[in-house]
């Protein structure tokens, strides 16, 4: 399919949904795939309103909302800028073309943030440098994008806004279960990451803060098996201590995670030691207080005022309420993790060309690799698979049975004995 005449490319550069102004000729009020019969269950008069109505269903689930908005936004902008047609006029052939586009968004200057420097840098949505992409999508990310868009189109058909789902004709592949997890770090590579963190400079207060933050973050991701969104969305006040059936005091972390599910993560002695180390580097008490609002990962410099006031015997307050530091965003946590992996990869390359392949693997790694790494290492050390399942939140926890309570205590003890970070 040839590109439309340049005169139809009304939008020069893509803009976020909240700032997007679409000409009437492209807003979809008369899209060729608009439903014409029956009773519409949606008050939306155009494509942008329809997308906003769909996204409103996920407003209370920030991670899902962000993911779904990103994919709907990309498709809408591509339809307007690249094809010069409304989203509600897209055909099956258009969707196939878009699928290929995701693997190589061109022209890069239009679609990829910081394209001249190789992409990858994220800009705020209000920044003029904002773009919908940060680089080409991997095959797995392309598949995930098309799954989300299929959900969007199906819902718009069900709501009586669209006549049909242009993606419904796509060949549905049966997903095969991978024989094993491949996105993880084997022990030698994991040691290289820890060595890299241990070698971080600590000459200035800011360098020391970065070192302590990186060490604590990787401890939390590895020993706790947390997802990156769970680091941003939980607080230190969710650590608590309780005696087991033998009277031993054991620390736990209540994690509010994916799908609004709650799980208990064993806070091993090593994890609590690292928590105390991190908190003391911030000028805080070694252990958190119940219901403390301090984020699990604190932005550098954000506790300075509170620490200074505490030293004078007062609490940092705002209108009579204790002020807690703002949590780091998921994007900020992701950047810290990628920076650590990049640093470790650089150190490997310095050791010679025979380490290039291992360095390449590290540069591809993400925070979720640490979750897979932790799970793989726990199984390698023969931690009971049921304990791994419960720690990682692969099944709901039930705490009403005394027998399950004993199982939890055993899980804590076994995790403590067999799953270490060994800084």
Structure report:
By secondary structure, this protein is mainly alpha-helical. It folds into 2 domains: 6-158, no CATH class; 187-418, Intergrase catalytic core (hpI Integrase, Chain A, Orthogonal Bundle), CATH 1.10.443. 46% of the residues lie in helices and 5% in strands. It contains 15 helices and 5 strands. A 3-stranded antiparallel beta sheet has the order 1-2-3. Helix 6 packs across helix 11. It is globular. InterPro entries: CB, DNA_brk_join_enz, Integrase-like_cat_sf, Integrase_catalytic, Integrase_recombinase_N, Tyrosine_recombinase_XerCD.
How much strand content do the residues show?
A: 5-15%
Give Rg in angstroms: 25 Å
The CATH superfamily of the largest domain turns out to be Intergrase catalytic core
Distance between the ends: 57 Å
pLDDT < 50 stretches: 1-10, 176-181, 304-321, 396-406
Count of separate DSSP helical elements: 15
Can you tell me the CATH class of the largest domain? Mainly Alpha
Number of domains: 2
N-to-C SSE string, H for helix and E for strand: HHHHHHHHEEEHHEEHHHHH
**Could you name the CATH topology of the largest domain?**
hpI Integrase, Chain A
Main location: cytoplasm
Protein name: Integrase
Subcellular location: Cytoplasm
Organism: Paraburkholderia terrae
Brief summary:
By secondary structure, this protein is mainly alpha-helical. The chain contains 15 helices and five strands.
């Amino acid at each position: 399919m040839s590109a439309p005449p340049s005169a139809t490319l009304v939008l020069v550069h893509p803009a976020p949904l909240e700032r997007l102004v679409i000409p009437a000729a492209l807003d979809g009020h008369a899209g060729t795939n608009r439903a014409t019969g029956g009773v519409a269950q949606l008050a939306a008069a155009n494509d942008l309103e329809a997308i906003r109505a769909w996204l409103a269903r996920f407003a209370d689930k920030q991670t899902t909302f962000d993911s779904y908005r990103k994919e709907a936004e990309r498709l809408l902008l591509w339809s307007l800028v690249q094809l010069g047609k409304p989203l509600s006029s897209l055909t099956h052939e258009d969707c196939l073309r878009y699928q290929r586009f995701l693997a190589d968004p061109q022209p890069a200057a239009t679609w990829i943030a910081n394209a001249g420097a190789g992409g990858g840098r994220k800009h705020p949505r209000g920044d003029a440098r904002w773009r919908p992409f940060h680089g080409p999508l991997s095959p797995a990310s392309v598949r995930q994008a098309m799954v989300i868009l299929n959900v969007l189109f199906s819902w718009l058909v069900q709501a009586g806004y669209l006549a049909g789902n242009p993606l419904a004709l796509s060949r549905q592949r049966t997903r095969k279960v991978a024989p094993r997890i491949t996105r993880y770090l084997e022990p030698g590579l994991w040691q290289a990451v820890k060595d890299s963190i241990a070698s971080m400079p600590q000459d200035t207060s800011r360098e020391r803060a970065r070192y302590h933050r990186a060490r604590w973050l990787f401890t939390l991701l590895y020993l706790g098996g947390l997802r990156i969104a769970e680091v941003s969305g939980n607080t230190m006040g969710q650590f608590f201590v309780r005696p087991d059936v033998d009277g031993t005091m054991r620390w736990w972390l209540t994690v509010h995670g994916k799908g609004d599910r709650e799980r208990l993560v064993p806070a091993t002695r090593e994890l609590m030691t690292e928590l105390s180390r991190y908190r003391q580097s911030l000028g805080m008490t070694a252990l958190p207080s119940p219901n403390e609002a301090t984020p699990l990962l604190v932005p550098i410099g954000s506790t300075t005022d509170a620490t200074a006031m505490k030293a004078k015997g007062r609490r940092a307050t705002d209108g009579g309420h204790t002020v807690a530091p703002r949590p780091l965003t998921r994007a900020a946590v992701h950047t810290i993790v990628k920076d650590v992996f990049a640093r470790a990869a650089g150190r490997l390359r310095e050791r010679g060309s025979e380490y290039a392949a291992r360095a390449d693997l590290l540069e591809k790694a993400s925070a979720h690799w640490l979750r897979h790494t932790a799970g793989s290492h726990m199984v390698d050390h023969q931690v009971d698979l049921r304990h791994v399942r419960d720690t990682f939140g692969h099944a709901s926890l039930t705490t009403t049975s005394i027998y399950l309570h004993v199982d939890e205590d055993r899980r804590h003890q076994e995790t403590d004995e067999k799953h270490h970070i060994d800084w």
